[in-house]
């Protein structure tokens, strides 16, 4: 005579405990894998942006696009200031290319703000002002300002991609705004998330998006992961002093976990 025997309560509890233990071991590893995958996707996006800028340069006698309007240009301060997503619109099709997968909060949110908003050129009502439009920003010092335009520092702009030192000149990268003018006089943010739109503009780039680092596409089209403390070692403009912060500098406490990556 056969008898059917099910699991006892103790056996079920043991199995559940084992599964819970395995999950607790696997979840951190899975989280790391997901973050690494998003890092790679972000780098792939920037690789594509490098191609986009290169195509534009190829169609414009070797010069990059303008990054800032002429001083006092009425009605053009927002259109000319950071309009590269629209200036380059003919060279890319997918608007998702403007977004890093790690960017999940708007510039108006607290702490790790990442998504910026910018009105379209035909939106004079500013109805889309707070609509997230991207999470990458340009180094505005690379822009080709017109002769009657405005440069923050005379002779500082790069204007072209085929310049000496291109592997250390940032072009486009993870950013909390659509662009800016980092200078060696700018100190790092006092606390994580201090990324206001006013001066110093280095705060827009010094953001904790990839474990105290950001992805950058340089003028030679290489894409590298750069630690936040390394940002001051890059050649943002022609007159930028890469020794502006000595090794003994007292960095803000929130940047203690920053590490360096090969440049």
What does this protein look like?
The chain is of the alpha+beta class. The chain has one domain (9-255). The chain contains 3 helices and 7 strands. A 5-stranded mixed sheet has the order 5-3-4-6-7. The chain is elongated, with a radius of gyration of 23 Å. The relative contact order is 0.14. The model is unreliable at 71-80 (pLDDT under 50).
Q: How would you characterize the largest beta sheet? A: 5 strands, mixed
- Helix/strand-derived class? alpha+beta
In percent, how helical is the residue content? 10-25%
N-C termini distance: 76 Å
Percent strand equals: 5-15%
How many structural domains can be distinguished in the coordinates? 1
* Strand numbers in spatial order across the main sheet: 5-3-4-6-7
- Give the SSE string: HHHEEEEEEE
Our count of helices gives 3
Counting DSSP E segments of at least 2 residues, the number of strands comes to 7
Based on CA inertia axes, which overall geometry fits?
elongated
Radius of gyration: 23 Å
Low-confidence stretches: 71-80
- What is the residue-mean pLDDT, rounded to a whole number? 83
Blueprint (SSEs and pairs):
Blueprint: H1 9-58, H2 77-81, H3 84-87, E1 116-117, E2 132-134, E3 136-139, E4 170-174, E5 179-180, E6 213-218, E7 223-227
Parallel strand pairs: 3-5
Antiparallel strand pairs: 1-2, 3-4, 4-6, 6-7
